[in-house]
Amino acid sequence: MIDRTTVDPGGSVRHCCRVLGLRRASYHHRKSGHRPELADNELADLLRRTTECFVSWGFWKVYHYLRQQRLTAANHKRVYRIWCRERLNLRLPPRRPRIYRTYQELISPDGINEGWAMDFVSDYVVGPTHKRVRIVNVMDEGSRRALWTEAFDSISARTLLTVLDRVVDYRGRPAYIRCDNGPEFISRKLRSWAEGNGIELRFIQPGKPTQNGLIERLNKTLRAECLNLTWFRGVEELNDELQAWSQTYNLIRPHENLGHISPEIYELENQKFYYSVVAA
């Protein structure tokens, strides 16, 4: 075996090998002790087993992993040829399995004050402290009336119960309240409050906001007609604007599903609402 240090630095490898009568392949041959090369079928089996263990890895990650683990000494061109032959280049990226749920149609109640829906909307206020605020929305599913819209720095289960008590005081108790699975809605305090007032809590399925589509539509209207129109310098200013918007929404704004009339006019035309409030 010829060492490069023994060769005249001024001469080329080709000239030295010609003088000594050696083949250049012998000169460039790797040192003994290297791992023997795998056959094509063995390398293909190794690639398949590796991709089964690491389903999200592409070619280059698999190739460098095999080289680092000294499982193969093949160059990337040979490995990629076998990779394509085994159709591993057409593997689909792994996806999270879908959750299939039973379809539940959203049916709004016929009677006014029969059922409510509630949800939260997030927004920001600017000023000395740029902070995030949360807005609680409560609506009547029968008349589409916005029963309560108020912004808070944060909303806990206790704050939510205070809002619901105020709505019940002037509106009466509904038969149910529809909501999602947020931490404030699944709390023990809200469950105890609902049981004490004889109100059913109807939770939508996780990941299905369309099952609470009426309040989601109200949230979109609130954002498009109020929140997106200006920047608010504080929670007090935001609440003043929310009250003005709720008056316009309930008294003036026509609603297509109500026959292009406002919720106030719809409730006046359905006098049975007032008897239900008195009975409650």
Notes on the protein architecture:
The protein folds into 2 domains: 7-90, no CATH class; 115-279, Nucleotidyltransferase, domain 5. The mean pLDDT is 85. A 5-stranded mixed sheet has the order 3-2-1-4-5, with helices on both faces. It has helices spanning 13-20, 24-28, 40-53, 59-68, 76-85, 157-171, 188-197, 213-225, 235-251, 263-269, 272-279; strands at 115-125, 131-140, 146-152, 176-179, 200-203. The longest helix has 17 residues, at 235-251. With 280 residues, the protein is of the alpha/beta class.
Task: Tell me the Rg in angstroms.
Answer: 36 Å
Q: Output the CATH class name of the largest domain.
A: Alpha Beta
Round the mean pLDDT to the nearest integer and report it.
85
Helix content: 40-55%
Report the β-strand fraction as a percent range: 5-15%
Write the CATH homologous superfamily of the largest domain: Ribonuclease H-like superfamily/Ribonuclease H
The tally of helices reads 11
Q: Main sheet? A: 5 strands, mixed
Number of strands: 5
SSE arrangement:
Elements: H1 13-20, H2 24-28, H3 40-53, H4 59-68, H5 76-85, E1 115-125, E2 131-140, E3 146-152, H6 157-171, E4 176-179, H7 188-197, E5 200-203, H8 213-225, H9 235-251, H10 263-269, H11 272-279
Parallel strand pairs: 1-4, 4-5
Antiparallel strand pairs: 1-2, 2-3
Task: Describe this protein with a few key phrases.
elongated; 2 domains; Nucleotidyltransferase, domain 5; 5 strands; alpha/beta; about 280 residues; about 40% helix; five-stranded mixed beta sheet
